[in-house]
């Protein structure tokens, strides 16, 4: 397979990854630039190494070096890290694919298909996670899980206490939960229903004054 064709396939695959998959789902322009820049950079370096006497071994070593780079500017989610590795893999497949031919092309298609499927909004969409600051201190984990289930209106699968502040009466917790099929109630609905239950069912009767009869 022609090396120029592999370059073109890599550029198209990187554009599909950044503009067709990542940006419509996550809407971060800065990471689109990062993914395209990383892909083209790895493609250029790996293609240079493949055409020299060094061979593909150093190219794979380059992949290992790039994979441990920690971006300190902003925090990346695990999904964004997966896209980062996908951009790296596409660049290596395009730059070092002259010796493998159709295997490189199949690997490029496989990377795109896997990212398109596993990051689809409908895949495991009811399973969510997040960090919550609870305005109560819960030393007991089971009691905390029960409280979070009532608060979120969901089934809690995992609770990890990050900080327990007994002085300020707060708990910082990382929670993993599953939303019911009919959707979890909104927090405002929970508060409203709780406040409504505390209200009296009927207004109290106005006080009555005793009749005072004056006789001549």
UniProtKB/TrEMBL annotation:
The keyword Protein transport does not apply. Keywords: Membrane, Transmembrane, Transmembrane helix. Residues 186-216 are annotated as: Disordered. The chain crosses the membrane at residues 6-24, 31-47, 53-69, 81-96. Pfam families: DUF4956. This is DUF4956 domain-containing protein.
